[in-house]
Amino acid sequence: MKNSPYLLLRFALFLLLFALVLGVLIAFAYFKKDLWGTYFPFEKLRPMHVSSAIFWILSAAQGLVFYFIKEHFKELSKREWLIKVSQGLWMGSVIWALASFLFGTYGGREYWEFPPIINLPILLSWFCFAAYLYPVVFAKFRSQPVYVWLWSTGTLFFILSFIESNLWMLPWFRENFIRDITVQWKANGAIVGAWNQLIYGLVFYLMTRISGKEDSATSWQAFFFYFLGMANLMFNWGHHTYNVPAASWVRHVAYAISMTEWVFLLNMLYSFRKKLTHAKKLANWVSYHFISAAEVWIFLNLLLALAMSVPAINRYTHGTHIVVAHAMGTTIGINSMILFGALFYVAERSHATLLARFRKWVRAGFLVSNISMFIFWLGLIAAGIVKAQMMVVENQSFQVAMKAAKPYLLGFSYAGIGLLIGFGLCAILLLRLLRPSEISDVHQNEAN
Amino acid sequence: MKPMLSLRSHPKAVIFFVMFFLFSSYTGLVYTQGTEKMPNSDAFRRGQMVWQNKNCQSCHQLYGLGGHKGPDLTNLMSDTRKGEMYARALIRSGTAEMPAFVMEKEDMDDLITFLQEVDKSGQSRVPAHVVDRFGSYTLENDHEE
Asked: Do the Cβ atoms of A179 and B33 come within 8 Å?
């Protein structure tokens, strides 16, 4: 059983490589229909790319939570067979979903466009994960640090929101289009919030382990931000549907709650200097670089999210590439950087010598991916501003707006090649480091 | 008898359950309030499945939600420059950017019905004059109680 986290983590890294290659292919297919032949059109490549990227995040997050739960609780649960079942169902579902895209079989909704039957084993897989997690966690729940709370509620909200995202299959939810689209985006917004909880839990865990200061994860300040984040998960999804004519209080509640994100932003600014001094002491940790980069991306994306959450501004940005910049900034800039930080922490614990040999390559991958990501992100924002100006202000047609935005979208596409190289390099190194045959399993050593 | 869960003994758990209760109530309201109007036809529901099965959302948006390669189609049917005949021709023949789709006449009719009823549900573009001094707005066709 000792290799099960590594199997899922390696699976996640393969998914990331697949998503990166597909990302570059679709970025260029954007400009020319059938660029990659009629068998790989844009409408087939896009869901494959989107699903691979989502599956990378979820696979890596679940694998890392499992790894750290074992490390934190220092006990080998008898229920680890549940993890085996969970991972089997999960990996089988992912392969099934990607294969269905290959054969042009769809039927699902945005982000989950594969045939909906596949949602059943996905859900079962998460039930098994929860059945493993909760008995371990609840046994000593009262004094648990914030990362255990984040992992526990992240799992709960993922399951609830994933079920909610499938409610469209019940006729009552489909009988009114406004209800249907509102519930759909409520669920999708909460799913992102749920996986963010799993991933932010990893940050808290890593920071306490790297710095050796456990109190940062048990303080009232940590829990204040945990509950504030949860309030945003629960209520601020409404900025996705500001222009949908549902009840107007949905819009007002989302607007009010999303403005609490200023507190996150001000806290980041307030603690910036303190973190700088701290950073010098931790500069040697590979994972710390990725976590620090993620913090910069959190800051930039918060600025963007705050702007988009004001309905008067959202009027311009909604449906433009600014929304894509926000989505990519979150999934690549924040989520993937944190996941890389956590994966390198795992690699550092088991293969410190080998990782030291690869250090300059990791550094190159880190720099290339971050610089590319910044160009990528700015390209999307610029394209979004052009589109908003031409379509909302000047009332031009979609085709004219897209033609004007093309230079920025080309810049974004070329930056995507940089992301493929940077992240690809890190992913390949991690695949080398996390090979099951070479693992000097920390838990196994501790058990012995 | 001592309560199992009190604010003093388990403050974080109490806060969590209060928030979860608010979230559940809010979810119930979102599902039921302001969405009673506009019952959709069978053709609409079949058309929605054609939309999903052909994965139109990969390139097109409804209310700004979906892919960004093609235009938002929420109000395609009421657009005086476009409309039903334009949509049928484009789906059948494709364009320089969009592939042609082969489908049965019934599926095409259902898809058109779906787009027509989506169009009737509201406007995807928010007009400037509805924005209030707080930076929010209430749309003219918001489904209020």
From this structure: no
